[in-house]
Specification:
The complex is a heterodimer. Chain A is α+β, with helices and mostly antiparallel strands. Chain A has two domains: 316 residues, 3-Layer(bba) Sandwich (FAD/NAD(P)-binding domain), CATH 3.50.50.60; 142 residues, Flavocytochrome C3, Chain A, domain 1. In chain A, strand 7 and strand 8 form a beta hairpin. In chain A, helix 3 packs parallel to helix 13 and helix 5 crosses helix 13. The two termini of chain A are 47 Å apart. Chain B is of the alpha+beta class. Helix content of chain B is 36%, strand content 11%. Chain B is built from nine helices and seven strands. In chain B, helix 2 runs antiparallel to helix 7 and helix 5 crosses helix 9. The longest helix of chain B is centred in the last third of the chain and has 15 residues. Chain B is elongated, with a radius of gyration of 20 Å. Classes of the chains: A alpha+beta, B alpha+beta. Chains A and B meet through helix 3, helix 5, helix 6, helix 12 and helix 13 of A and helix 1, helix 2 and helix 3 of B.
């Protein structure tokens, strides 16, 4: 079987494509909408916005989340803000500039048409959120305030203190609640998608596990939307929530949805460093802190060593002995370079012996900002982040610089989708972080919230109708009577039984931590062909051990977190290998994908546009066989491709 | 540090629960409280026992999934944090720590330390939103909102829906939770149109679901991990009174 990738990009100029598409696509009439069922898996920004908007349009929506409430989805944890091209600051912003910054920030590995559309609808998002009662920050005149984020020379980021993701999600959750009350959305909480059901080549439903009773159920939909987030937890330690997982993406992949650029992972430069072996997750310190905080390490190794040994305090080190290495290397963007650049620069300094703390940390210092603006202003801007830092590290960041280090944060790669956000399986859609389309090889700060809400509110509700318009003649299926549903449900039961039957010695977490270390060491910030090959061998071996030696206590007909974790880890053990395979094939450095063999003499990423200006879309061939590579070439018509330069 | 843990175990919603004692050794003071429970669970799995079930997800104090009554206090012995942000340095070597689930009529225990908080979703579904369909909105700057109002609204909006207020209230009242949403939206011009109807619908739903009345003890405010103020309850009472004056 071969998959032909048709990205279905409308013809015409980039600025006119979306308008043209909306004018010409097929729509479903109101009477038919209520005859169509849509499954939405996930309730984060993408999922909640999509479920609510589809419900408002009159479709019958079935929405699923693994938590006890849709409001827990990990979008809630996004801190800094959301971008939009409003140009309220009169600082020269425009839709084109947001589009340009996003394509450039993604190191020219994103699809131009999708990114333009994203920039185009960004302004509608802000309007929508304000109308829902999202309490964005405002100035004294009552107008909306903005801050700056990395990779941009304008202030276009809207924010609600350090809790922007929370407020945007609660806005979408409010709209979702309204549709639940109206009967248009049926909500299934504490329910996990276990597999995808395909009937006659089209996605027609899912099998779920009720996480309280353990019951397996089948659900029919005329279309299925995956809004299941990213797979950063393949590294075990990440800024993702504990339950965030890649299982829906892997299940879709194994059923024929190609997986795009899985190696493109974002490592966020400003996270609280690891404290020890029992560490279960990493906490982000918002990128917005780089508006006022300055990043440095000691300029002399002896001082770094004294600090590590506790013989010297950072506050005792005079200015001339500090190396503000981002300002030194990138004078134009300084501390606001994109995340991939900032992360690599921190790793470079620490690897060279200038790290502080455990040696795997650098300083983020607010001394100058406090002198310039006063402590109360800094507190108003970042108070909750400072409080969070103090609770975790037990140091007061108003008095001593914060310690930070890069950590896995976001996955730009994901399920391949066309312009309509449809995957290579007809009827299966993927939105938000779960798809690959908008951020290329590196995502700019405050753009994840923008993409989740763009897809959920303004893109999917239109594009899905172009597919559903052909489905109005398909009657609702009773999954209990359809062979394909029964078969997938049996497969799921068999998988669970197989896991219980192993009765091994090791806990799921012990395997997950081991996988995380392999991924961090071999598929992390600096990758080499040799290291990746070694990583693949280690992952295969670990996967074998997992299926021989994992121990799952308890039973399947009860709340069983160990079983949930085991099912997710089984998928991570396959996904990790695919990520390594993708990273190994891409013989270039771009964005978050940095291959040590491909760099400029100054150590910057060296792209190979001639050979790698394409989306790598991997097709499943069987767990123990290498995936097959499909390519979608990237054509830049509106933007001239250049070497990224933040100097 | 070495600790004795007294943990509530309950097989499911119908089963009777009991406390069980566990010894745990070599816990780092830099570990979070939930990482300490992770270690306990690793130990239980090795002993072929069932691990302790507890709710958690983001582990950075914002999703509202984690709960726990620790030594008689919601989210444990620290101010303005959730359990996942509590660190073991707040305890001493040799301590005995009592760990219980939220206890309230509105939140039945479903296993060990996990409770069912769907009642909160139901309250919000009854009216905790602004009725604005996607695509209706005017320009975001069309209605200026004073900085003070926006900030006060944000103070209320910070609620994470964890349920500590209910769990800590002697009447199991959900007034702080309800008032935070009512207040957030009533303070904003776009939320005013439905303010009175919203307050009545949410309070009625709260009563229907078995939450108790507010007797102004202020315990909720003390334990709220986001520092949400009792003032919002006053605003809710005002809106609710208006609702009953205008039938």
């Amino acid at each position: 079987m071969s998959t032909t990738l048709n990205s279905k990009i409308p013809a015409g100029k980039v600025a006119e494509k979306w308008t043209k598409y909306k004018a010409e696509q097929n729509l479903v009439n109101p009477a038919n909408k209520r005859k169509l069922d849509i499954i939405v898996v996930g309730t984060g920004l993408g999922g909640a916005a999509a479920a609510a908007s589809l419900g408002e349009l009159g479709f019958k929506v079935k929405n699923f989340c693994y938590s006890d409430s849709p409001r827990r989805a990990h979008s809630i944890a996004a801190q800094g803000g959301i971008n939009a091209a409003k140009n309220y600051q009169n600082d020269g912003d425009s839709i084109y500039r947001l589009f340009y910054d996003t394509v450039k920030g993604g190191d020219y590995r994103a699809r131009e048409a999708n990114v333009y559309r994203l920039a185009e609808v960004s302004n509608d998002i802000i309007d929508q959120c304000v109308s829902q009662g999202v309490p964005f920050a405002r100035d004294y005149g009552g107008y909306l305030d903005n801050r700056s984020f990395g990779g941009a020379l304008v202030s276009r980021t809207f924010y609600a203190r350090g809790q922007t993701g929370q407020q945007l999600l609660l806005g979408a959750y409010g709209s979702l609640n309204r549709q639940i009350a109206a009967g248009n959305v049926t909500m299934h909480v504490r329910t996990e998608m276990m597999d995808l059901v395909i009937v006659d080549g089209k996605a027609r439903g899912i099998v779920t596990r009720d996480l309280v009773s353990g019951e397996l159920n089948t659900h029919f939909g005329h279309a299925v939307v995956l809004a299941t987030g990213g797979y950063g937890n393949v590294y075990f330690l990440s800024t993702n929530a504990m339950g965030s997982n890649g299982s829906a993406a892997v299940k879709a992949y194994k059923k024929g949805a190609v997986m795009a650029n899985p190696a493109f992972v974002q490592i966020h430069p400003t996270c609280i460093p690891v404290h020890g072996e029992s560490q279960s997750k990493l906490t982000l310190m918002s990128e917005s802190l780089r508006n006022d905080g300055r990043i440095w390490v000691p300029s002399e190794k002896e001082d770094a060593e004294k600090i590590r040994k506790g013989q010297l305090k950072p506050t005792d080190l005079p200015e001339e002995k500090r190396d503000y290495y981002l300002e030194r290397r990138y004078p134009a963007f300084g501390n606001l370079v994109p995340r991939d650049v900032a992360s690599r620069a921190a790793k470079e300094r620490c690897d060279a012996g200038f790290g502080v703390g455990t040696g795997q940390a650098v300083y983020l210092d607010f001394k100058h900002a406090i002198e310039r603006l006063g402590q109360s202003t800094i507190k108003a801007r970042y108070g909750n982040l400072f409080q969070m830092y103090e609770k975790i590290v037990d140091e007061n960041p108003y008095e001593t610089p914060m310690m930070i280090y890069p950590a896995i944060h976001y996955t730009m790669g994901g399920t391949w989708v066309d312009y309509e956000l449809q995957t290579s399986i007809p009827g299966l859609f993927s939105i938000g972080e779960a798809n690959f389309s908008d951020h290329g090889a590196n995502r700019l700060g405050a753009s994840a919230l923008m993409q989740g809400l763009a897809d959920g509110y303004f893109v999917l509700p239109f594009t899905i109708q172009n597919y559903l318009a052909d489905q109005i003649g398909v009657a609702r299926m009773n999954p209990d009577e359809v062979l394909e549903f029964k078969k997938v449900k049996e497969d799921t039961k068999a998988l669970i039984d197989k896991l219980f039957a192993i009765k091994g010695k090791r806990s799921v977490d012990s395997f997950h931590k081991e996988l995380g270390l392999i991924m961090w060491d071999h598929v992390g910030m600096g990758r080499t062909a040799e290291g990746l090959k070694e990583g693949i061998v280690k992952i295969k071996k670990l996967r074998e051990e997992f299926w021989k030696d994992v121990r799952i206590p308890g039973r399947d007909d009860m709340i069983n977190p160990e079983l949930e974790k085991a099912c997710r880890l089984a998928d991570f053990l396959e996904l990790g290998e695919l990520m390594a395979q993708d990273a190994l094939h891409r013989n270039e450095s771009c964005g978050g994908h940095f291959r040590e063999e491909y760099k400029t003499p100054e150590g910057e990423a060296l792209r190979d546009d001639e050979n790698f200006m394409y989306v790598a879309a991997w097709e499943y061939q069987g767990t123990e066989k290498p995936a097959k590579l499909n390519k979608e070439s990237l054509n830049y018509e509106a933007i001239e491709v250049k070497t990224r330069n933040y100097k | 540090m070495d600790l004795t843990l007294k943990v509530w175990r309950q097989d499911n919603a119908k089963a009777k629960g009991r406390f069980e004692n566990y010894q745990i050794k070599n816990i780092s003071p830099d570990s979070s409280f939930l990482e300490m429970i992770d270690e306990l669970n690793e130990q239980l799995i090795q002993e072929d026992k069932e691990p302790v079930a507890f709710d958690h997800d983001c582990r950075e104090g914002i999703c509202g999934m984690c709960s726990l009554f620790i030594n008689g206090r919601a989210h444990g012995p620290d101010e303005e944090i959730t359990t996942c942000q509590l660190h073991m340095r707040k305890f001493k070597d040799g301590d005995t720590i009592v760990i219980e689930p939220w206890r309230a009529n509105g939140f039945p225990v479903i296993k060990d330390l996990m409770v069912d908080r769907q009642a909160f979703d139901k309250i919000l579904q009854s009216g905790g939103f602004i009725s604005a369909n996607t695509g209706n909105a005017p320009d975001a700057n069309a209605i200026p909102i004073g900085k003070d109002k926006a900030e006060e609204s944000m103070d209320a909006a910070a609620c994470i829906g964890c349920g500590a207020c209910v769990a800590t209230c002697k009447n199991s009242s959900a007034m702080l939770f309800v008032s935070s949403k009512v207040s957030q939206l009533a303070l904003l011009p776009q939320g005013k149109h439905e303010a009175v109807r919203r307050a009545k619908a949410m309070v009625d739903k709260m009563d229907e679901l078995g939450f108790g009345h507010c007797t102004n003890t202020g315990a909720c405010e003390v334990e709220c991990p986001k520092g949400i103020s009792l003032d919002h309850i006053s605003r809710l009472n005002r809106e609710f009174l208006l609702a009953n004056l205008k039938p």
